[in-house]
Amino acid sequence: PRTGSDGGGWAIAQRLGHTLTDICPALVPLLLGKPMFHAARSGISHPAELSTLADGKTIDRRSGSLLWTHFGLSGPLAMDASRHWLLVNDRSGGDGSVELRCNVLPGRSFEQVDRGLIERARLSPRTSLSRVLAADLPERLAAALAHHAGIDPALAIGQVTREQRRTLVHSLTALPLPVLRDRGWDYAEATAGGVPLNEIDYRTMQSRRNPGLYLAGEMLDCDGRIGGFNFQWAWATGYLSGRAAGRASQR
Question: What is the rounded distance in angstroms from the CA atom of residue 191 to the CA atom of residue 59?
Answer without folding.
Answer: 19
